Amino acid sequence: MDGIGIVYAMADNVHELRPKAGDTEKITINLGHVDLGQIDLMVQDGFYSNRTDFIRTAIRNQLDRHADVVKQSVARKSLELGLRHYSREDLEAVRAAGQTLHIHVLGLASIASDVTPQLARATIASVIVLGALHASPEVKAALTDRVR
Q1: 70 three-class SS
Q2: pLDDT tens digits for range 55-94
Q3: 101-111 and 80-86 as β-strands: parallel, antiparallel, unpaired?
Q4: Which of 53, 123, 130, 144 is deepest in the core (most CB within 10 A)?
Q5: What is the pTM of this model?
Q6: What is the DSSP track for 9-50?
Q7: Which backbone phi and psi does 137 adopt, to 5 degrees?
Q8: Bridging pattern class, strands 13-16 and 7-10
Q9: Cα–Cα nearest to 91, from 137, 49, 124
Q10: Residue 3, strand partner residues
Q11: How far is CA 44 from the centre of its chain?
């Protein structure tokens, strides 16, 4: 059941135990046979429910361990942290004001599906996303020279 959102409901409280599939990005890693065997042993002994659970836990532990460094870097690079959505209305307001955007996001930046490539080029001067950028293929193509 990896990657499927599991929700535990008790009375009127709902708690998300795992992120929903749409809230995650898939990555691929190569591991040596010994490392993989050790992970499988931990899973088999019940310390983790599966390989993915082990890897997510290891990543979270490393991020927690380096949280201060990440915070300093986010501040130094003027990154917005989390989810940042740009609607057609947002970009039209930027264009009407005669301005352009510099999108700097750590997390997920999304551009609405009704944003045209022409509107995106007219209003977005640069894009730096550490995480994921969700936009139509046409908008991504229009911004290719502005994405770093």
Answers
A1: helix
A2: 999 999 999 999 999 899 888 888 898 999 999 999 999 9
A3: parallel
A4: 123
A5: 0.65
A6: EETTEEEESS--GGG---------HHHHHHHHHHHHTTSSSS
A7: -55, -35
A8: antiparallel
A9: 124
A10: none
A11: 30
Task: Tell me the pLDDT tens digit for each residue of 20-67.
Answer: 556 788 889 999 999 999 999 999 999 999 999 999 999 999 999 999
Joined together, the tokens standing for residue 57 give 């836990």
Q: What's the rounded Cα separation, in Å, for the pair 69 and 88?
A: 35
Alpha-carbon dihedral angle through residues 64, 68, 70, 71, given to the nearest 10 degrees? 120
What end-to-end distance do the CA atoms of the chain give, in Å? 35
Question: What gap in Å lies between CA 28 and CA 103, rounded to an integer?
Answer: 27
Taking a C-beta distance cutoff of 8 angstroms, is the pair 90, 115 a contact? no
Tell me if 125 sits within 8 A of 101, measured CB to CB. Answer: yes
